[in-house]
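Board work, copied verbatim: NADH:ubiquinone oxidoreductase
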Amino acid sequence: MSWFLKGIRKGIKTEKEVKEIAPWATSLIGNGKFDDCPTKALDNGWNSGKCIFCRKCYPNYSPSGDYRMGSVTRRVPLFKRSFYLYPIDTGSCGSCNVELKLISSPQYDMTRFGIFFTNTPRHADALVVMGVLTDGMEDAFRRAFDAMPNPKLVIALGSCAISGGLFGKGVKADVIIPGCPPSPPTIIDAILRARGEK
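↓ predict structure ↓
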C-alpha cells in the first residue's frame, strides 16, 4: 500500500500534547550556589536565560520535566489568526536553527496554529533572533527590525540570544525562550502565549 493511502486511512498524526521530551530541555530545580557554572547561571538561584545546560551542576540541580519555561513580557492578540516569523541568525552554533525548523515538521505542525515563516522582514510579525549578537550582524539585525511593520515582537531564542551565552551579548526581547537549544514544544508554547493564548 502506498504511503499516501496509508496516511489518508490513519488520519492526522500531529501531536495535540507533547508525549515525550528530553529531560535536559526542561527547567531545572535544585538549590544552593554552584561555583563552577561557566555562565554564572546559578549565582542567585537558576537563571534560565544564562544556562547553557552543560550539566556541570548535576546532581545539585536536575531537570523538572516542565518545558513551559519561556517568558513573555508583551502579548499581541492581533496575531492570533496568523503569525509570521522572520528568523535571523546573529551568530549561533546552529542548534537553535535546527530546533526552530522542527516546529514546522509534521509532528509539531506550526501551521495548525497559524504560525508561518516568511522570507522578508517586511511581512514579519516577529523577529526570531538566534545566537550571540555579533558586531558584524548588529547592523543587519537593526535593519531587519526597522523594516518590520508595527506592531512587532522580538523573540530571543536560546541562551546566546538572551544573555550572550559564554561570550558576547544578547538582545532586548519581548519573548524569551531559554534553552541551549530550546525544544520545539518550548518554542511553540512561548509563541502561543505571545499571541495572547494560554
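The mean pLDDT is 85.
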